[in-house]
Specification:
Layout (H helix, E strand, L loop, with lengths): L2 H20 L16 E5 L2 E4 H9 L10 H23 L6 H15 L6 H15 L1 E11 L6 H19 L4 H8 L8 E3 L2 E3 L5 E5 L6 H8 L10 E2 L3 E12 L3 E10 L6 H19 L4 H8 L3 H4 L15 H9 L10 E2 L3 E11 L4 H14 L2 H17 L2 E2 L5 H6 L20 E5 L2 E4 H11 L8 H28 L1 H30 L1 H10 L5 E2 L2 E9 L4 H12 L4 H8 L6 E9 L4 H4 L8 E6 L2 E11 L2 E2 L6 H23 L2 E3 L1 H6 L2
Antiparallel strand pairs: 1-2, 1-21, 3-6, 3-8, 4-5, 7-8, 9-11, 10-11, 12-13, 13-14, 15-20, 16-17, 16-19, 18-19
Amino acid sequence: MTTKLIARKMTALRKVIALIMALFFILGNVAAQDISKEIIAEIGSEKITVEDFLKVYRKNNAQTDKLELKSLQEYLDLYINFRLKVLEAEDTGLQNEQSFKDELQGYREQLAKPYLVDEEATERLIKEAYDRSLEDIRASHLLIRVEKQALPEDTLKAWNKTMDLYKRVKAGEKFEDLALEFSEDQSVRDREAAGRIMQGNKGDLGYFSAFDMIYAFESGAYALQKGDVSMPIRSEYGYHLIYITDRKPAMGKALIAHILLLNPSEDKAKDSAVQKEKINEAYNKLLAGEPFEDVARTYSDDRSTADKGGVLQWFGSNRMIPDFIYQISLIKEPGEFSKPFHSHIGWHIIKLLELNKPGSFEDSYAEIKDNVQKNERSVIIKQSLVKRIKNEYGFKENPKSLETFYQNVTDSVFSGSWSIPRKMSLKKELFTIGQQSVLQQDFADYIVKNQRRGTKENIRFYVDEAYKKFVETVLLDYEDKQLENKYPEFKALVNEYRDGILLFELTDKKIWSRAVQDTIGLAEFHKQHENDYIWGERADASVYTLTDTDNKKIDLILQMIASKVPNNEILDTINIDTQGLTIKRSLFQKGENEDVDATSWEKGTINKIEKDNQTILVFIHNVLEPTPKKLNEVRGLVTADYQNYLEKEWIQELRAKFPVKVNNELLTQIK
């Protein structure tokens, strides 16, 4: 069952359960403590205590006034009917069907998700991300690459190289020069791409905020102040040195218009001077009051925006060159424009149109939480949960038991074809969690099941990573199995869904689908109750609507009506030149058509009405006396009534099968 299908069915099922619960919630928190354990009703062998009965109301925290005995009896009766249906479903073995088990398991997995998250870690990361989103950072970096699965000696070599560069920066060498010479990020230096030279950034990454960079890099950067350089920071790409160029209040999202004069293709001093003179000319026109959009159309080299007055799409701080972001921070109000400034692209003038600063924590919470759960931060949350599970249940492991995997897992695992060697002894314990012991055999089976085609890597690294995921899987599964015992509210919710599915499935078979499919029974029910479905007095009438007030046409229509000319011939005659006449003949009840209502309901009556530059003629062909409705005219209503009839009969059968006893004295004691 797909996640979307489960979500849709959960929504439908919640509605069923909500309807059931709505029948009960009015009673509120009304159980008297001295009678809570007493039996208020017996249904077959099932005994229902006052506490059982009222628990569903406490869930809704309803505050109610004193209830009348009659109301209590009515609600208890509804609850008994609900339990009768669930008992019948269980008696038929519906809960043993695989389809039921699969469906319930699908719902349980959805319900369990909030319990399998470290809420404390989640909230901490949400707050951290929000605080970071209030500030934009401009940073440069120097990267020394090292693979995730690199051998220890290779990792140490990369670390030492990065540390040497760190010391050189601290000794006073320019970060930009070291990045140009040593950084292994290809964007640092000029390079050819798509037939043109792309200018290198010299390590400058521009401005960014929360979620714009990988988490390790982001965290390293936000821990620094302007002018600081970091110690080596490890990411999936290798080791970074990070140098902070600027920190400023977050821009948020900006909408701007711009004028761009591109740098000459060959950087000649004469051509550059011409461009500078031209941008100053455009700037002076703006100062003189010419509209920005007109100047942009005339001067801007960005032809994709010039015709639109230079307007760009909304962007954040990491989506534009840093010179833009800095200049926006100097503009105080929307509508103002910058002085000309130069970048590696060319000369610019920008006008701030709108600026959306970051919202409050409350307003931003939902979006940030969604990003946290989709971002690599979700890995941190999972790791935090796994750590808590280990501590809670006394996780103990035997790392030496992994040695046999280092020796026996081969490169065939990267083609998805590794199988467990016969010589491989797999009886030792890998770890324990709570009362559960996990053996080498379990991990071997996990590798076989989860191996995928991929790039070859160090076997020890592969085994360690697979083992880490295996431990996480086992621990999360172990915690999942404890949920019903640890959280009574979760157990109650799963039971509600269980009973709801049973009720839904059995009611569908016994009532809803049966009423639709049992055409003979439906027809017989309609026949027996036909006097419950009566047409009121109806007029067989034709309504002639003419889009003009041409008296000749009106007279002609009246003559043809009097001569009993069929409506289709009247239509053809009047619309021979223009489509000015429409005719509707139907059986009308009072209230269905105001023009028919305004006409005297007598056979042969013709009424002429002028309104909205139209002429309307109503002709009463006949007046029908009240008569029973045919089944095809009222099938939906009859089907609903038939379902109610079937349910009442079914409840009587169930009460005979599962005798019901009610302690009415207890009802009078519930306050």
